[in-house]
Amino acid sequence: MALSRLSSSSRRLDLLTSPLAAALARRPISTDTTPITVETSVPFSAHKCEGPSRSVETTPQELISFFRDMALMRRMEIAADSLYKAKLIRGFCHLYDGQEAVAVGMEAAITKKDCIITAYRDHCIFLERGGTLLEVFAELMGRRAGCSKGKGGSMHFYKKDSGFYGGHGIVGAQVPLGCGLAFAQKYSKDENVTFTLYGDGAANQGQLFEALNISCLLELPAILVCENNHYGMGTAEWRAAKSPAYYKRGDYAPGLKVDGMDAFAVKQACKFAKEHALKNGPIILEMDTYRYHGHSMSDPGSTYRTRDEISGVRQERDPIERIRKLILGLDLATEKELKDMEKEVRKEVDEAIAQAKESPNPDPSELFTNVYAKGYGVEAFGADRKEVRAALP
Ligand SMILES: Cc1ncc(C[n+]2csc(CCOP(=O)(O)OP(=O)(O)O)c2C)c(N)n1
Ligand SMILES: [Mg+2]
């Protein structure tokens, strides 16, 4: 998605700083599709399948787009944190910084005809599916220009025209829905798949196993993606799961454990999973990832884990820093060029926030629209259920 957003200045990165870069200079990096192979950080662990190769094909164009997309996501989430603290965002708000590689790697392996459905940590998935920063910030601030017209807020982002089905606040509830989307894909023989994202906390719910069972029986193109950030609110995975090896928890369903901080490992795993699911049915991908923020804005995130743990992950496994090192190692851009790109991203975010603030609140007449099925009427009662407060047609 980011390439389409690159401004003309960043499209023409100055590449005349190294021999390889000089050779590449005739082609701007953002359109350079020279094949490059990179290795995943660690091998995949596979359950009931042969995992994919660690060698991943990429291009300078993709490397730069991964860097830029993740930098944009990181900045967007940090800006959301500030807006929340300034009380411009209200209600629930769950941030995704740290987990960005899952969003960009997955998108790089699939098309917009493939579906994605997730829980409440949904801002970055929406962006990667082609949503705009304005739609994000306006929705977060409850403004009309938001992707759900300012009526959904942080947990209810959707983009049906590019296969993004939300944005769900009830833990685990999106899993049977995702399997239903895969059922529709198989029924209409359209050769696409559905990626259903859920957390390590959700991974222990009964509905997941029920949905997986029927999906396996029907050989649906359902890919279950457990984003294992190692905590469900303040509960560490080992306190909630007898076996935290989530990629094996499908028992009869194959699974892969993936370094979810490595966008290329994610891309390789998602490509593999798509091919597998179209031929054989469900597969589980466990993405080993980490959230830097607390669970939600009401959680400082430091009472159930140490500051050393958080800073250790930042230093050793950060998904953006990994890509930065690859770009610098391959001499595709200079440190300054990457810093400039980050500055540009920051400006883009600030501009979107300013625009979102200009957008009005939803009209009061919208209070009951998109809530109840049209034409059935609705009555709303007071808390004591005696006094009828509103009766709509
Ligand atoms: C059915 C249900 N139970 C409890 C909650 C409260 N709740 C919200 S998020 C959450 C933890 C989920 O953790 P995990 O699945 O690991 O996802 P993460 O937040 O780490 O992305 C809980 C218990 C809820 N929203 N829905
Ligand atoms: Mg979790």
From TrEMBL:
GO molecular function: pyruvate dehydrogenase (acetyl-transferring) activity
First-tier enzyme category under EC: oxidoreductase
Keyword field contains Oxidoreductase: yes
Enzyme Commission designation: 1.2.4.1
Keyword annotations from UniProtKB, A to Z: Oxidoreductase, Pyruvate, Thiamine pyrophosphate
Catalyses which reaction(s): N(6)-[(R)-lipoyl]-L-lysyl-[protein] + pyruvate + H(+) = N(6)-[(R)-S(8)-acetyldihydrolipoyl]-L-lysyl-[protein] + CO2
Primary role: The pyruvate dehydrogenase complex catalyzes the overall conversion of pyruvate to acetyl-CoA and CO(2). It contains multiple copies of three enzymatic components: pyruvate dehydrogenase (E1), dihydrolipoamide acetyltransferase (E2) and lipoamide dehydrogenase (E3).
Subunit note: Tetramer of 2 alpha and 2 beta subunits.
Name under which the protein is recorded: Pyruvate dehydrogenase E1 component subunit alpha
Organism: Punica granatum
Upper taxonomic lineage: Eukaryota, Viridiplantae, Streptophyta, Embryophyta, Tracheophyta
